[in-house]
């Protein structure tokens, strides 16, 4: 058995954790293994505890852990090769996965670039848009997006992430200055003629018109702004941005890294808006949470535009681990499961369970909003979440949860049973009640 105390001491002194300070004192929990929807933790006193993962490991592990079909896909691919370079070489896992992605997404999207993470896929999408405009000679270099978004942590994605959430003020003069429309009014089902919606559309159109000649592309997360604040907006928001782009000769980039593969109830959130992007980014759940892999899909028009002589003649991007065969094989097996398990029924079940299970939180003094969309359940607090205390309180109730800002939320694995789902909901509601009142 691992000497957890010693390992945690080394972790504290030598490792970075996400969004952490080197001076941070709260120790992380030590995971020994994971199976089904549960993480097996080893506590410093040597005791073990199993907890339900209400986060799906940051929204990726949609089928849970130690999934026999995904394990088998990994083993079968390991026996052939775990990796080869993608420059000048190709292989069946990449080709088969590209075929699947082309079949699953709108017919206009015909070309696939495999990246090694979501942020890199957004880098590639933005580079494609900029390069295309070099090719057409418009000189356009700016992006148009909405506040409250999140597109990744490397510099280009960070430049279109919410200026406050992305800490743009730290990087003034280094970060390119893009154009941000207001946060859209809340609610997926908000009617198009709602006054707040009409006001948002007016302001967004006005802002866009002021910059139209500079805008290379619009970029947004359809329906769900994830790490930027777990906000939901109506399909109309996606349509307005796409219309503006089309009217003014800009491209449409949709970032479905969080929403892709069923999380909001449809395979892709863009289906609800009936918007076909020029460029689409997918990632996170693509490999069922097993390995890091993302993909950028684009139209033939974009692909050929970027490859034109005037645009440089080639897309200058090629990560070392591009199209990693192991990741591609597991992604194929994961997509089989998404379809065989009937994800839409699974996610509908999550939506029903989360809606009734989280509802009691609405009565708490500390809570300003409770909202659910597909397999996403959010409790929004009046004040910043006391993350450590909330996690500990949920853990006592058998659930792993990692709140951020003023948000206590869950994105459970699709395979979560109704019993486990109600354990998650009870743990969230009771933890909020205990810690925040
Ligand atoms: C997580 C996320 C990213 C970044 O993906 P990484 O794999 O963490 O680099 C980009 N866009 C959205 C919408 C995301 O949710």
Automatic annotation (TrEMBL):
List residues binding pyridoxal 5'-phosphate: 118-119, 255, 319-320
GO cellular component terms, alphabetically, are:
cytoplasm
List the GO molecular function terms: adenosylmethionine-8-amino-7-oxononanoate transaminase activity; pyridoxal phosphate binding
Q: Which domain of life is it from?
A: Bacteria
| Name of one Pfam family that matches | Aminotran_3
Coiled coil location: none
Please give the catalytic activity noted in the UniProt record. (8S)-8-amino-7-oxononanoate + S-adenosyl-L-methionine = S-adenosyl-4-methylsulfanyl-2-oxobutanoate + (7R,8S)-7,8-diammoniononanoate
Say if the entry is tagged with keyword Transmembrane: no
The metabolic or biological pathway listed in the UniProt record of this protein is:
Cofactor biosynthesis; biotin biosynthesis; 7,8-diaminononanoate from 8-amino-7-oxononanoate (SAM route): step 1/1
Q: Which SUPFAM superfamilies match?
A: PLP-dependent transferases
Function summary = Catalyzes the transfer of the alpha-amino group from S-adenosyl-L-methionine (SAM) to 7-keto-8-aminopelargonic acid (KAPA) to form 7,8-diaminopelargonic acid (DAPA). It is the only aminotransferase known to utilize SAM as an amino donor.
The family annotation for this protein states:
Belongs to the class-III pyridoxal-phosphate-dependent aminotransferase family. BioA subfamily.
User: What is the protein name given in its UniProt record?
Assistant: Adenosylmethionine-8-amino-7-oxononanoate aminotransferase
């Amino acid at each position: 058995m691992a000497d957890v105390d010693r390992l945690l001491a080394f972790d504290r002194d030598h490792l970075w954790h996400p969004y952490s300070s080197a001076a941070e004192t709260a120790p992380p929990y030590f995971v020994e293994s994971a199976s089904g929807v549960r993480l097996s933790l080893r506590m410093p006193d040597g005791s073990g505890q199993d907890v339900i993962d209400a986060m799906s490991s940051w929204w990726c592990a949609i089928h849970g852990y130690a999934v026999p079909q995904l394990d088998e896909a990994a083993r079968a691919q390991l026996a052939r090769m775990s990796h080869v370079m993608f420059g000048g070489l190709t292989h069946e896992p990449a080709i088969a996965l590209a075929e699947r992605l082309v079949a699953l997404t709108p017919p206009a999207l015909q070309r696939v670039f495999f990246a090694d993470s979501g942020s890199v896929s957004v880098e590639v999408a933005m580079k494609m848009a900029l390069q295309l405009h070099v090719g057409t000679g418009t000189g356009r270099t700016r992006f148009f997006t909405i506040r409250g978004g999140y597109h990744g942590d490397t510099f280009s994605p960070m430049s279109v992430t919410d200026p406050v959430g992305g800490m743009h003020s730290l990087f003034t003069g280094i970060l390119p200055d893009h154009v941000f429309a207001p946060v859209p009014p809340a609610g997926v089902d908000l009617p198009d003629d709602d006054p707040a919606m009409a006001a948002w559309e007016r302001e967004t159109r006005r802002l866009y018109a002021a910059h139209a000649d500079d805008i290379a592309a619009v970029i947004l997360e359809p329906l769900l702004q994830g790490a930027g604040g777990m906000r939901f907006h109506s399909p109309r928001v996606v349509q307005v941005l796409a219309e503006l782009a089309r009217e003014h000769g800009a491209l449409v980039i949709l970032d479905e890294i969080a929403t892709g593969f069923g999380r909001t109830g449809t395979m892709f959130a863009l289906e609800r808006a009936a918007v076909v992007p020029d460029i689409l980014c997918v990632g996170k759940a693509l490999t069922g949470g097993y390995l890091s892999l993302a993909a950028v899909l684009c139209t033939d028009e974009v692909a050929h535009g970027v490859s034109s002589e005037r645009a440089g003649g080639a897309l200058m991007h090629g990560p070392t681990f591009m199209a990693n065969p192991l990741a591609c094989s597991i992604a194929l097996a994961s997509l089989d499961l998404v379809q065989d398990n009937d994800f839409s029924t699974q996610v509908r079940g999550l939506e029903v369970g989360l809606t009734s299970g989280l509802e009691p939180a609405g009565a708490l003094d500390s809570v300003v909003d409770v909202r659910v969309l597909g397999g996403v359940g959010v409790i929004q607090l009046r004040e910043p979440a006391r993350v450590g205390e909330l996690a500990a309180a949920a853990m006592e109730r058998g659930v792993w949860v990692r709140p951020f800002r003023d948000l206590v939320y869950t994105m459970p694995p699709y395979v979560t049973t109704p019993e486990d789902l109600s354990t998650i909901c009870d743990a969230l509601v009771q933890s909020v009640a205990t810690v925040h009142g």
